[in-house]
Recover the amino acids of this structure.
């Protein structure tokens, strides 16, 4: 039964804006000291509408904090070999500090090959094996952006993770897997990670002090799957079309927000929760990459 408990809505837009302002001030300080201004390079292959929107938002964010940026657009017919040559060029461009290849890529191009070709010290998405593995070290390098953003939300809302039972639903390389590692090694939480092969998912989610969901299945988490007072972080985003939505479509999360929220102590909305933090984390990684290479 859903209760009427008071909950705090975690505002990812506000925290993202705060982070961007902090970065802008650090860039201004670097300029005043005659130091290098961060430079982010972005490769976009094809004309996928969602990817174009993501890239446009990243360019807008670069402008807002004073970063330099380079956009490289290629047709979806580009060969894997030619794309790798362009990546090699950016790897060797000393003026570029951070570098991303927007996903998804056309089917004839290997995401794994392309990702691993990016220099780890410029991999501001945090996807290379070296950066992924560095999560468990005492000095992580450039962390996977979405998971990094979630950890920043928890930190800035003073949500205690040490000794808490965190349950992560979704084991993807982009979100669930790195997040479970960060919660364990940085957050000192006890972590259970669930995935599509997990049996009786609800028995795990009901045990969570902190429930983090990154599956891409709208409404997967219902009120009966969450315990009273839990912290719920919804990472999933799915565009759903239908006549019931004013625009004809809506962006939905993995959590049934309306019914789950009253049971929570803290919860992220979708949109406006984790989403804005991914770009903020990308900027943080780019600034860190710049500072590591040009103190």
């Amino acid at each position: 039964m859903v209760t009427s408990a008071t909950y705090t809505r975690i505002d990812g837009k506000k925290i993202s804006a705060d982070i961007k302002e902090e970065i802008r001030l650090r860039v201004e300080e670097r300029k005043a000291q005659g130091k290098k201004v961060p430079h982010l390079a972005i490769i976009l292959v094809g004309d996928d509408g969602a990817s174009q929107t993501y890239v446009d938002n990243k360019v807008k964010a670069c402008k807002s904090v004073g970063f330099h940026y380079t956009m490289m657009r290629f047709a979806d017919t580009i060969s894997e070999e030619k794309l790798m040559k362009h990546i090699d060029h950016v790897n060797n461009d000393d003026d570029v500090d951070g570098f991303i290849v927007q996903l998804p890529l056309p089917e004839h191009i290997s995401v794994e090959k392309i990702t691993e070709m990016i220099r780890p010290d410029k991999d501001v998405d945090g996807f290379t094996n070296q950066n992924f593995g560095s999560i468990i070290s005492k000095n992580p390098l450039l962390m996977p952006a979405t998971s990094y953003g979630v950890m920043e939300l928890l930190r800035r809302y003073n949500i205690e993770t040490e000794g808490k039972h965190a349950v992560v639903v979704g084991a993807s390389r982009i979100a669930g897997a790195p997040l479970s590692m960060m919660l364990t090694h940085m957050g000192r939480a006890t972590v259970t990670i669930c995935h599509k092969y997990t049996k009786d998912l609800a028995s795990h989610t009901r045990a969570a002090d902190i429930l983090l969901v990154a599956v891409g299945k709208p409404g997967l988490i219902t009120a009966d799957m969450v315990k009273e007072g839990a912290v719920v972080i919804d990472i999933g985003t799915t565009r759903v079309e239908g006549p019931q939505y004013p625009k004809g479509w809506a962006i939905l999360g993995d959590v049934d927000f309306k019914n789950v929220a009253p049971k929570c102590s803290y919860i992220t909305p979708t949109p406006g929760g984790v989403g804005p933090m991914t770009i903020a984390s990308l900027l943080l990684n780019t600034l860190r990459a710049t500072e590591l290479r040009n103190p």
